[in-house]
Amino acid sequence: MRGGKNNKMNMHDNLVMTIQNCEAVCEHMTTLVHSFPDLHLRVAQMQLLRDCADICSLTAKFIARGSYFARHAAHLCAMICEACANECLRFPDQHSQHCAQVCLHCAQQCRAFAMMPMTPMMPMTPMMP
Questions:
Q1: pLDDT tens digits along 1-32
Q2: Which of 23, 26, 40, 101 has a C-alpha 20 to 30 A away from that of 82?
């Protein structure tokens, strides 16, 4: 199908995949951290990994369905991903370093999306039931 809403939705497919990848990496990292001997030093990291995965899940859904709140969610997602990345960077293990890079990339992409002008696909006011 050419033109119309489907092509507009497809232009954000890469962003949705980036966000979903960040969610998956943070979820996996949460599991890994439980096996680390310094778990007691990683309480903030664990909290941010869960927050990051949760906001990524919500943001990907909002963007995929063209929610009015997609840009707001993306802005918050960028902030949380950046905080998670900064916490992961504090730890030298390769898993934390990789997670940090994934989160930083997601934050950058979400921030760029959040700053895009509104399109006709995105209504200016929320629709009420």
A1: 344 445 554 678 999 999 999 999 999 999 99
A2: 40
- Determine the length of the chain: 129
Query: How far apart are alpha carbons 51 and 80 in whole angstroms?
Result: 7
Kindly report the CA angle at 61 between 58 and 65, in degrees rounded to 5?
145
Q: For 35-72, what is the HEC assignment?
A: CCCCHHHCHHHHHHHHHHHHHHHHHHHHHHCCCCCHHH
Task: Please state, in angstroms and rounded to a whole number, the distance separating the CA atoms of residues 111 and 105.
Answer: 10
With tokens 């096996």, the residue in question is 35
Domain boundaries, the chain: 8-114
Per DSSP, 14 falls in state H
User: Taking the CB of residue 69, how many other CB atoms lie within 10 A of it?
Assistant: 14
Q: Give the integer Cα–Cα distance in Å for 71 and 93.
A: 33
What integer pLDDT is reported at residue 4 of this predicted model? 45
pLDDT tens digits, one per residue of 48-81: 999 999 999 999 999 999 999 999 999 999 999 9
